[in-house]
Design a protein that fits this description.
Shape: elongated
Largest sheet: none
Order of helices and strands: HH
Number of helices: 2
Helix content: over 70%
Length: 66
């Protein structure tokens, strides 16, 4: 991985980079960002469901000791 450098006066803005990409590459970037967002939300939802399940099981066991 490269070490980030300090921005210089001749740096290129993201708008300039985006404008330089052809339509196919822009579409690929949009699809990639959408997939990353979907994966993040899915992981967060699954984590939340797992925590709720563990809480429900432990709560049920504490109310009904065997």
């Amino acid at each position: 991985m490269s070490v980030p450098t300090a921005p210089s006066d001749d740096s290129v803005t993201l708008t300039q980079i985006w404008a330089a990409l052809n339509a196919d590459l822009q579409g690929s970037v949009i699809r990639l960002l959408a997939q990353l967002a979907f994966n993040l939300l899915t992981a967060q939802t699954e984590s939340s469901i797992n925590k709720e399940t563990v809480y429900a099981i432990s709560s049920d066991q504490s109310q009904n000791p065997a």
